[in-house]
Amino acid sequence: MSQAQARMMDELPTVGGGSALAGTLLGLVPGGDLTAGIGAAARAEVQQRQAFDAARQLQELAEKLAALEIQSDHACQRHDHLVGLYLAKSCKAP
Fold it and tell me: Are 61 and 52 in contact (CB under 8 A)?
């Protein structure tokens, strides 16, 4: 993830959510629908931030896995090369 993307994710506001019961009760109060809508939007924003955080963690893990696969491949190639050198010299196992 680029630094700009990480900075944008960090700048997202974090807002607490409410319950469905509170939204229903607010619907009984004049103007409460607006408040309930704002609360629902805040909850959706929090869920979106959590999804972005999970996606960022997944991407970081995928990058680490790719690096480990490259290291493993390099180690296997080195092993094969050393075995080839050993066999080319007609060495005998101890």
Answer: no
pLDDT along the chain (94 residues), means of 10: 61 51 64 70 88 94 96 95 86 66
State the pLDDT at residue 26. 59
Cα–Cα distances (Å) from 24 to 4, 29, 70, in that order, read 39, 9, 54
Q: How far is the CA of 46 from the CAs of 9, 74, 82, 84, in angstroms?
A: 12, 42, 54, 57
- Domain range annotation of the chain: 3-88
CA distance 38 to 31: 11
